[in-house]
Amino acid sequence: MMSLSRVLGTTTVTVALAVGLLGCSSGSVDGSTVKETQEGLTPISLGVFTSPSVAVIQAGVEQGFFEEHGFDIEVIQAASSAAQLPALDSGKIQFLLASPVTPILANTQGLDVQIVAGYAQNDPDTVNDSTALLVGADSPLKSPKDLEGKKVSINALGSIGEIGINAAVEADGGDPSTIQYIQLALGDVPAALESGEIDAGMTGAPWIGQVEAAGGSVLSDFIQEDGLGKNELVIAGNGTFLKDNPEKAEDFIAALEETYEYANENHDALAAMLPELLSIPEAAAKNQVWTLYSAEVDPAVLGTFAELMTRYEIVSNEPDMDAIIWKH
Amino acid sequence: MNILKNLAYWLGLPIILILIWHFATMGDISPFVPRPLPLWEKFVSVWLGENLLTDVLPSIGRLLLALAISIVLGVVLGVLIGSFRSARWFFEPLFEFLRAIPSTIMIPVLLLVVGLNDNMRITVIVLGSIWPVLLNTITGVRSLDEVLSNSAKVYGVHGWGRVWHLVLPGASPAIMAGVRQSLAVGLILMVVSEMFASANGIGTLITNFQNRVAVPEMWSGVLLLGVVGVVLSAIFALVQKGVLKWYDGLKAAADGN
């Protein structure tokens, strides 16, 4: 009897799960049908992941840039952009802030997702504005090729960290296939470096400062060194929506451009929003180093992304960049 | 014939459900919905190849080791604490408090204290799965049959003999119920502990597939976890049958009266 009830229990769960999933897939909103609100605004959703960049979009919303271009925008926050891909694919959200890795991956997996605009550009003159690879105090590692056979932490496996560090090591004459990558949140890196659990770790501001204060140093600003910095983050769009509403997509990009312009010139206003948006202390918010924001999409940089992703087998078939970059 | 009939009962519903699943997911639907055939192909190619040695076995090894530690520690502490009324009163509120803390929330702390290694992952599993065994053992020891307990005293059964021949068998139904719960808790914690700061394991691979938008591969990992759960509970059922033979016999006899 016990085994029968177990089987029944398991199958009930399976049925519930299957029904739920089917419900999701059939009940989802088609990306092409977007109805206007009473004020004549087009409702639009943008997925973002938790980072200081949230403040940039929020500032644009508060300044009314999106409303001026006819949008009633909803900003949806999630922990990672990969987690929001199903929503982008089904058309529940029309745009998504992501590393180029995410839309390129999605495309090779058969999702209709395109890169429509740039977002963050890594400032070549500052390390602190983005992520870098750091080592602890008294580390014997001096350059990327010393990472051979070492334990290196990145924030997500198969991400810009993995391809970026691989490329930096190879450019330095090392063999990246011997590196042991482990997934570790950016904020856990200072402690792990100090205890010697990892030989090097990828982290960002404000933790870069924390590692440096403890005697550590930057081993490689790999995103910059690999030439990936110009399109470090991009805005991806739902392919069906873009095909059916090219003018609306243009309007959206125009609103983004105004937002970026405002953000690049008003760092203090952005910093003032951080404590409430991300619950970080005000002192830390004031010290936030802002990167450059730009809507420019550089096909050469995105091509480098695709090439590295193919070389390090993040994707199994070569990405078709012509299909991935949206044509105005 | 009987075996065939039982087999049909066992597999009938799953087969029907898989067929429904197969036909319902045919045609043009979201790539995020799992389909039975690709899922099975990935299950074979992903988990039964090289990854069996590099990820599946390390995961299972950590799980079994952690469960063994939980059971031994839980039973030993449980017998000690359960045997003395004052110890019970002293420790029980603390245990109820500690068991309510999800051990996953301790991962960042354990990363610092234990470090970024297998010991950390095993600690996470033990911190979660020890409580059902420990608390059930205490209850089992406390509710020993009084007549048996007093008879043992009269016959001069003390010390180890008492623990081995009276306390442990008497508490075993409760202990086994606790072990059953910790299997489920342990499996969950095995996966979660590998999603943070891990270089191998089933949980790490599933997270990796999720990051890489490898949807069928990810679902095949979910299937693997289900299989591991079923195998664990089958082994448990066998062990329980042996350990509680006397108890099942006693119950059957009582029901017969």
Explain what this protein looks like in three dimensions.
Chain B: Pfam families: BPD_transp_1 (PF00528). Chain B: It comes from Microbacterium suwonense. Chain B: Belongs to the binding-protein-dependent transport system permease family. The complex is a heterodimer of chains A (about 325) and B (about 260). With about 325 residues, chain A is of the alpha/beta class. Chain A is built from 15 helices and 12 strands. Helix content of chain B is about 85%, strand content about 0%. Chain B contains 11 helices and no strands. The longest helix of chain B has about 35 residues. Chain B is flat. In chain B, about 35% of the residues are buried. Classes of the chains: A alpha/beta (about 325), B mainly alpha (about 260). The interface between A and B is large, with 49 and 39 residues.
Write the layout of secondary structure elements.
The complex is a heterodimer of chains A (328) and B (257).
Chain A: H1 2-27, E1 42-49, H2 53-62, H3 65-68, E2 71-78, H4 85-90, E3 95-98, H5 101-108, E4 113-118, E5 120-121, E6 132-135, E7 151-154, H6 160-171, E8 180-183, H7 189-195, E9 200-203, H8 207-213, E10 217-220, H9 222-225, E11 234-238, H10 239-244, H11 246-265, H12 267-278, H13 282-286, E12 292-293, H14 299-311, H15 321-324
Parallel strand pairs in A: 1-2, 1-3, 7-8, 7-9
Antiparallel strand pairs in A: 3-11, 4-11, 5-12, 6-9, 6-10
Chain B: H1 2-24, H2 36-47, H3 51-83, H4 85-100, H5 107-113, H6 118-142, H7 146-154, H8 159-195, H9 202-211, H10 215-243, H11 245-256
Keywords (chain A): Signal
Subcellular location (chain A): Periplasm
Family (chain A): Belongs to the bacterial solute-binding protein SsuA/TauA family.
